[in-house]
Amino acid sequence: MNKQATSNGAAAADAAAVAADIEAQRRYRLAAKSSDPQTMYQAAAWSVHNKLVDAFDKTQEYWKEKDPKHVYYLSAEFLMGRTLTNAVHNLGLEGEYAEALKNLGADMETVRSQELDAALGNGGLGRLAACFLDSMATLDLPGWGYGIRYRYGMFKQAVKDGLQVELPDYWLDAGNPWEIRRPETQFKVGFYGSLDGDKWTPSEEVVAEAYDVPIPGYKTKTCSTLRLWDALPSSELDLAAFNAGDYVKAVELKRKADEITAVLYPNDATEEGKELRLKQQFFFVSASLQDTIARYLEKHSDLSGLAEKATFQMNDTHPTIAVAELMRLLIDVHGMDSNAAWGVTTKALAYTNHTVMPEALEKWPVRVIGKLLPRHMQLIEQINTQWLASIKDHVSAKVAKEQAAKKAEAAAAAVKVAAAAASAAEGKEAAAEEAKAGEEVEEVDLVAEALKAYSIVQENQWNKDEMLVNMAYLAVVGSFAVNGVAAIHSEIIKTDIFPHFVELFPQRFQNKTNGVTLRRWLAYCNPELSALITEALGTDAWVKDATLLAKLKPFAENAEFRKRWRAVKQAKKAELAAHIKDVTGYEVSTNSMFDIHVKRIHEYKRQFMNALSIIHRYSEIKAMSPEERKKVVPRVCVFGGKAASAYYMAKKIVALVLSIAETINNDKEVGDLLKVVFLPNYNVTEAELIIPAAELSQHISTAGTEASGTSNMKFALNGSFIIGTLDGANIEIGENTGFENLFIFGIKAEEINRLREERKDFKDYDPRFIAALDLIKSGAFGRPDYFDDLVASISDMNRGNDWFLLANDFASYMDAQAEVDALYSDQEEWTRRSIIYTASNGFFSSDRTIDQYAREIWNVQPCAQP
Ligand code: GL2
Fold first, then answer.
1. Distance CA 535, CA 723 (A)
2. Which atom of ligand 1 is nearest to 355's Cα?
3. Contact criterion met (CB below 8 Å) for 697 and 718
4. Is 354 marked active-site?
5. What's the rounded Cα separation, in Å, for the pair 298 and 671?
6. Angle in degrees, CA 696, 580, 684, rounded to 5
7. Span from the CA of 485 to the centroid of ligand 1 (angstroms)
8. pLDDT tens digits for 786-843?
9. Residue 197 — left, alpha, or beta (φ > 0 → left; ψ -120 to 50 → alpha)?
10. Which positions carry the signal peptide feature in this UniProt record (predicted)?
11. Of the residues 122, 125, 710, which should be mutated to test ligand 1's pocket, given the most ligand atoms within 8 Å of the CB?
């Protein structure tokens, strides 16, 4: 890392060659006369593009020749962020490019800031997919990502009159140097139409065209791909309509195709039951499977061995239609018999669950699938019928056992009754009756009833006339492996989401704790800290082998090292402070603790609870004497995150934070003791600036709701403390770092069902909680009416009834916050532990996660060019 490119002649010559190349791109590809930052960015990007193409071609040729098993990561989302810095670093050319740009009168920082984020994802799930691609390439694992080339990514968030507003993200505006269009790689994808027996004739057809986004590994020749599909009309014009003069109808085909890849659905961890979404899902899944099969058949004569050469990892339920589509392709297109096809399908597919939020577990109406994909609906019915038949014996035996237990219970009860009324004749009669009742059960109906819990096709519990396909069940039945994304989450899916399936095949269920790439999330976003780590360890090998970070531990005891560690944090805080000033106009002091809460806005993530704790802190400061105020630990509380456009409460939470910020930041009495900032448009690039500057980060979801979280890992690796609940990966971070170093509070996951039951009578409100709510209601932060529903959602049992249990956790949250303040006052100890965070969390490298997937699920081996 940070190799001094100019320190030797060869590197200087390389920089000169790079400069010449950038110039050539500017002159000929862009035909640009000026060298403004955007032009220089484009020129540099196209020059890197060419290097990626070389690396990409060599890798793919090598893999083609060796024919190793591949993994295909099917995901509706890839949240890539910017590419330039990452690519240049992974290629090991950062020095050359920096030098070259300097020689051309530009500078790397300005140039790189021109790039728009590729935001083809909502949040954690999409960003995880991007980290996984980086790790797969770095570990030389033959693998591709497959997704959709949305023309509009995640919306841009702006603030207007104290509210969130959404703006379209047309990220392809200035062209995209990071993709290669492949007009030679096209597949037809059909929709709707009719079914004659099992012969499907679609009535609408589009063409999927491939775009490859090269993914360079770090310090390796391997460069793999993210293949994204665009939709084209099967013919530009409906000629008959055109000739008849109906021009609107004539371009209808184009409009329909455009619609499929137009926008990313901006919902995070919530279902979006729209037909267009299913269309998107099927579109990319079908194209990806066809593409893989076509390549497979170049080398193999039939598809019976497909699963030995390919695993398809389904990223959540979004690509689950793959179960039916792979069956259809094998049976209808390639003539395999259906049993053999089922054998191949269930050996080739694996499924990752990313959420337990009930509203996010996709269930598609049979009606919708039947209309859009009639053949697939037929296959799903067949799969379900066979599946239920195959488990009938098991379920019958289970029912019989349960009945026997009930009978035994009834008999025991009868004996008791008889004993109690031993002398009375009626006692005997009653006993005989009870025993008999236990036997009169219709077992057949009981089995049918019990089977419903295993059925992929189910009744809609809210509408008895509608049948639904439970996509998660389809995924479990159609896969050879199912995994959760953190230890606690993988247990919860076994006990709460799929208990019936666990009982049948426990070995199918696994855990793969998430990870993040240390390249983007430490080495490149925090070069100052990286340099310090490299210097201390005497090597930069930790960038590829994160276990080496553990060797930092002894340095925590070294006062000189701590001083330098603190200096880096100060520098990163100063950068963030400047950005805050730039974007919001607020001036914040870098002597304050930087307390950060950034993630999608969701009630379960409880940004509202943090807001209430800030209101309490504000009231406390206001009530203090000047002497008391001197003891306050000053804080800057930073929020960031997007609320889904249709998520009513989430938008109110954003508005509340903005209102609190305005009141508090303008209160002269409070000054630097407390500042609140909402940074709009939180995205990957913002995160790269925010995370290195954090001293405390908040991961305070209701226990049992956040599957994993991945920003918690990024913060920990950058030496930030965590205040959080026993939820998701917080728990494993605690195990690695030592729980004494985290600020853990709140209820446990196993308590929430009971507490939700009890909350109707909940009386134990913390007075600070009540006072904070009252302050909102009083209008202290403006528009009390606007916040009425939000306040009611956690305090009125008829209007939300605090489903996420803020009231239960508030007191212990405040205790944890008090501990934070106390520790921060001892800067030596704080810094010591901050170093421990970085040193302890190498486990959360996505290289480790991907290595586990490769060994324990995919059975894919590295295949590196010599
Ligand atoms: C999520 C989970 O909410 C989050 O906790 C997890 O870290 C990521 C990645 O596994 O997946 N599930 C989900 O639907 N989204 C997530 O971020 N959008």
1. 30
2. 12
3. no
4. yes
5. 70
6. 70
7. 9
8. 999 999 999 988 888 999 999 999 999 999 999 999 999 999 999 999 999 999 999 9
9. left
10. none
11. 125
Residue 640, strand partner residues: 598, 679
Mean pLDDT of 320-327: 98
pLDDT of residue 96 exceeding 90, the answer is yes
pLDDT at 267 (0 to 100): 85
Check if 221 is active-site: no
Residue range 68-82+117-390+455-515+849-866, CATH number: 3.40.50.2000
d(C-alpha 761, C-alpha 138), whole Å: 54
Tell me the CA distances in angstroms from 866 to 59, 93, 139, 222, one per residue in order: 11, 20, 14, 10
Residue 571: its H or E element = helix 559-584
Q: What's the CA-to-centroid distance between 330 and ligand 1, angstroms?
A: 32
Strands (E), 691-835: 696-699, 721-724, 743-744
Our mutation pick for probing the ligand 1 site, out of 79, 131, 359, 485, counting the most ligand atoms within 8 A of Cβ, is: 485
**DSSP code of 144?**
E
Q: Find the residues whose C-beta lies inside 6 A of ligand 1.
A: 122-125, 128, 268-269, 316, 354-355, 360, 485, 514, 706-710, 728
274 an active-site residue?
Answer: no
Any idea which of 6-20, 530-544, 668-682 has the lowest mean pLDDT?
6-20
Catalytic one among 70, 376, 520, 600?
A: 600
d(CA 643, CA 601): 5
CA 706, chain centre distance (Å): 11
Task: Identify which of 315, 355, 710 to mutate to test ligand 1's pocket (most ligand atoms within 8 A of the CB).
Answer: 355
| CA-based nearest residue to 636, from 674, 665, 586 | 674
Which ligand 1 atom lies nearest to the CA of residue 710? Answer: 7
CATH class of the 518-840 domain in this structure: alpha beta
Please tell me whether residue 865 adopts helix, strand or coil conformation: coil
Identify whether 714 is a catalytic site residue.
Answer: yes
Structure tokens at 63: 């893999």
Helix axes of 374-390 and 392-420: crossing angle, nearest 10 degrees? 50
Q: Point out the catalytic residue in the list 149, 227, 599, 642.
A: 599
Determine which one of 89, 354, 376, 635 is catalytic: 354
Question: How many CB atoms lie under 10 A from the CB of residue 323?
Answer: 29
Annotated active-site residue 392? The verdict is no
Pick from 523, 661, 514, 639: which is nearest to 585 by CA?
A: 661
Q: Is 600 a catalytic residue?
A: yes
Point out the catalytic residue in the list 292, 513, 517, 710.
710
Q: Are 826 and 34 in contact (CB under 8 A)?
A: no
742: left (phi over 0), alpha (psi -120 to 50) or beta: beta
Pairing of strands 194-196, 70-74: unpaired
- Cα–Cα distance between 210 and 293 in angstroms, integer? 15
Pairwise CA distance, residues 842 & 848, whole Å: 9
Ligand 1 atom nearest to CA at 709: 7
In this structure, the strands spanning 78-81 and 204-216 are unpaired
Sign (positive or negative) of CA dihedral 391, 392, 395, 396: negative
Kindly state the DSSP code that residue 423 receives in the 8-state scheme: T
Sequence letter at residue 383: I
Angle at 49 between CA 45 and CA 54, to 5 degrees: 155
Measured in whole angstroms, the distance separating CA 89 from the mean position of its chain's CA atoms is 24
Alpha helices by DSSP H, 301-424: 306-309, 322-328, 338-348, 366-372, 374-390, 392-420
SS (H, E, C) 692-757: HHCCEEEECCCCCCCCCCCHHHHHHHCCCEEEECCCCCHHHHHHHHCHHHCEECCCCHHHHHHHHH
Please state the atom number of ligand 1 nearest to the C-alpha of residue 352.
10
Nearest atom within ligand 1 for CA of residue 706: 5
- What interface predicted TM-score (ipTM) does this complex get? 0.99
CA distance 629 to 621: 7
Q: To the nearest 10°, the Cα dihedral for 407, 410, 415, 421?
A: -150
